User: Fold this.
Amino acid sequence: MYPNLLIPLLAALALALAALVLVAVRQPVSRRLALRQVARRRTEAALMIGGSMLGTAIVIGALVVGDTLNFSVRQEAYRTLGPVDERVVAPPGPTGRAVTERLAVLAGDPDVDGVLNARATQASAVSGAAERTVAEPRVLAWQMDFDEASRFGAPGGDSGLGGPNPEPGQVVVNEPLARSLSVGAGDPITVYLFGAPQTYRVERVVPEQGLAGVGLGGRLNRDVFLPPKALDSAARAAAAEPRSVTFVSNRGGVESGEALTDTVTADIRQALGPLAGQTEVETPKHTVLRDARQAGDSLGALFLMIGSFSIIAGALLLVNIFVMLGEERKSQMGMVRAVGMKRSRLVGSFTLEGATYALLSALPGVAIGVAVGWGVAVVAAQIFQGWSVGGSSIRIAFAVTPTSILNGLAMGLLIAFAAILATSVRISRFNIIAAIRDLPATPGQGPHRRLLAVSTALAVLCTLVAVPAVAGSQPDATYLMPALALAFAVPALLRVLPRHTVTTLVAGAVLAWTLLAPVVRPRIFDTPSMSVYVIQGALAAFSAVVLVSDNQKTLLRPVRRFLRRPTEGGLAARLAVAYPLAKRFRTGATLVMYTLIVFVLVLLTEISGTLRAGVVADATAGYSLRLDYNPQVAGDRLVSDLRGGPSAAGISAVTPLLNATGRATDPGRRSPQPLDTAVVGVPDGAITGITFRERLPGLADDAAVWRALASDPRYVVLDGFFGSTGGPAGDYYDPGDTLNLTDPRTGRSEQKVIAGVLSNGLVFYPGTGASSTTYPVVLSEQATRELFGAQAQNASALVRTSPGTSPDALATQLQGEQLSSSLVATPIESDIRQQFDSSTAFFRLMQGFLALGLGVGITGLGVVMVRAVRERRRTIGILRALGFRARTVQRSFLLESSFVAVEGIVLGSLLGVLTTWLMYSNSAAFEGLEGGFPVEWTSIGGLAAATFAASLLATIGPARRAAAIRPALAVRVTE
Assistant:
C-alpha cells in the first residue's frame, strides 16, 4: 500500500540511519556505553525490543490488510473478466446485429487483441440431482463459438473458455452454477429460456475463470453455455430476441490492458457511429480495478487508524521503559557528567542504545505483522461471506507486497527512533550533584525567557490559524489548533498562576474542547479521512489523563478514611497509592495506554450497538420483500400475477419499480468521475412509508417530498451513502444541491435537484449482486421514462406481507411460482440483519486488531511493576525488617496495579460512551437512526473485566518476587 510514500519514508529512514552511524563513529565512548548496556541488561533489552516490535507489527499488519483487499478485488478481474476489457451491450433486434457488424473493424485495431461476439439472455434453471429438485433463478444463458472464444485475448493467453462446442441437447456450465444446482457432468438440467423450459444434459463443468465466469455486471455469474443456434431457436419460438454482446480485449495482459481503456472506448464509439446512442459501452475491468484500489486504500486506512492507537501505546511503552532506565542509572549518569561527558554525548549514548533495540526488533516485527495481516484476512473472509448478495461476495485471498513491508518497516523504525530521541533528551536534563547523591528532582524556577517568547509566539500563531479552521469546520485543524494554542500558552500562564492550577485549567480546557467540538461544529466528521478520529482520541485520552494525574489527591479523598485505617489492609492500600502519586510521569504514561485503547474499544462497541438498534426499523420502511426479475419474460404481467396468484393471500401490497442504469456526477464533489447509478422510478403516491433525514426547504413533511417528486421531473432523492467509497457517510450534499444524470446508451443528460436525503435507502439498492459502487437515484416513473426511454423497464418490486405471513416462507414460495421469470425474492429484514451481523463481526475484528494495543498497555503495566520491584528492593527490605509481612507487600503491589488499571478502564469507558453519544447526537453519519442510543453495559462490563483480570495476571509475578525478597540481603545489597 501507499507506493507514493515509499521514497519519502525510505529517504527519511536513510537520513536517520546515517545520523546514527555518524554519532557512532564520532562518539566512540557513547557507542561503547550503549553497546555495553545492551549486552549487560538483557531483560531491559528484551522489553525494548518487544515494544519496538509491536509498533512495527501493527503498522505492517494494517498495510497487509489493505494489500489483501486490493488483491482480492483485483482477482475479480481475472475471475469474471479475464481478457475482457470492454463490453458492448446492444438492444435486441436489427440494431444488435448492426452493432456486431460495425464492431468487426476493431479486429484490425493495433490496441485490440480480440473481438468476440456473443448472444445472452437472463434465464433460470432446475435440476433433479440427488433425488431432490434444486432451482436457481439467477442464470445467464450464453451462445458463443468456443473455438473463437479460445483464441480471444492476447496470443498464448488463457481466455478461460475453450474446447469443442457443446453438442445439441448438451450444455457447458461453470462451477458456480454447478454448485448451485448440485450437478456434474452427465446430469440433466432444465433451463428456462424466455419463459419456456428446455431440457439439456451437462457435458462438462468449467472453472470460473475469464470468459467462463463472465457476466453483465455481477460479481458471481452462474453461466450456462448453450449449443450453437440454441438460443436463437428458443428466441424465435418465444417471438423474442436475445441481447447482442460484444467483448473487446485490449492489447496486453489482464491488468496491463486496462491502461488502454480510454483509447479503445473512443475507437468503439467511432466504429459504432450513429448507433452509439442506442448501445451501452461498458468498461467493467476499469471499474473492477478502480474498486480494488478504493477498497484496499479504504480498509487499509481504517485498520491503520485503529492501529494508530496501538502504535501510540507502543511508543509510550518505549518512553516509559527508557524513563525508568534513566532513573535507575541516574547516579551513573551524574558521575559520567561530573567527569566531563557532555550532555549531547549522553543523549547520543541513549539514542544509540535505543536504536540498537529498534533495529533488532525489525525482522521479528515484520514477521509478526505479516502473521497479523494473515489472521485478519482469514477472519475477514468469513465476514465478507455475510455481505454476499445472492452469493456475490468478495472472495478474500491473502496477499502482501514488498512496498507495504518496506513502508511498514520504515514507519515502525522512524516512530521508535523519534520516541527514543525525545526521551533521551528529556532524561539527560538533570542536576549533576542531585543525580550523584540520588536525590529527588526539584521543579525549576520557571520557564526561561527564550522559551517564554517562542511558546507565546506559537500560541498566538496557533490561535490565528484556529479561528478560520473552526469557522470552516476543517476536521483536523478544528481539534488540533485550539489544543496546541492552549499547550503553547502554558509557559506564559506559569508566570501568573501556580503550576497545579495551570495544568488543571489547560488539560480541562483541551478535554472540554475535544468533547464539545462536534457540538459546536458538527460537520467536522463529514470527511472520509480517518486522521480526525486519531487526533480526537489522542487528545481526549492525553488531556483526561493529565487532568486526573494532577488531581489524584482530590480524587482519592472519598477513600481517605480507608487509606488511614491502622490495619494491614490500610498499610497495603497506602503503599499502593503512594508510588503512583510520587511517579506521575510513569503512572500517567501507563494510564494513557489503558485509557486510549479502552476508549477506542468502547467507542467501537457503542457504534456497533447504535447501528444494530436503529438500522432495521429504518431500512425496511414497512416492506417485507424485494423482488428482482427478468422484465423480458415477466413483462407487466408479473405484478398482476402476484396480486391474483396462489400466494396472493400472503401479500397485502405490491409496489412495482421502474429500473434503468445511469451515470451521475457527485453532488458532494468528491470525485470528478461519473458514478454508476441504479435509477429507480417509483409510481406516484405508491411510496409513503420511507422517510427522509433531510428535506428541501418548503417541503414540510416526508409526504410532501414524494408529492414533489411525482409532480416535478427535476427532483430526485438520494441515499445518504451516495458516492461513498469507504469511511463514515458524512454530510457532503444537502437538499437543493444538483447533479447531472446521464443515460450512458444515448448520452442524454439532465440536471436534477435533490429534493430529499433518505433516512435509509437500502430497499432501493440492486438485489442481484451489482458493483459495490452502484448507488440508487430515485425519480418518478414519468421522469425515468422521459430520460431513459425504452431502457427503463419494470424489473423489481417491493412487497408488503399480510399479517401472520412469514417473509422467508413467502420468498421461497414466490421464487418457485415465478421461476420462469428468474424472480429473486429477498426478505428485506433478514437480509439486513445478516449484513449488519456481518458488520458487527467486522467491528469485532477491528476490536481484535486493537487488542494488540491493549496487550501493549498491560505489558506496560507489567514492565512498571517489574522495574518497581528492582527500584524498591531496599525499601521493601526495610519494611520487611520493620515487621511487614510478605503477603502485605504482595497485596500492596496487586492493589497498585489494580489502582492504575481501574483508573484507565473507567476513564477510557467514560470517554468512549460520552464521545459516541456526542457523535450520535451531532454527526451526519448517525442521522436517520431511530433506535435510540443504547449503552452496551454487558459488552463494556465484559471488556472491563477481561482487561482487569489480564492486568492482575501481569502483576502476580512481580508481586510474588517482591514478597519473596529477604530483608537482610535487600538492606545490604543495592544492586
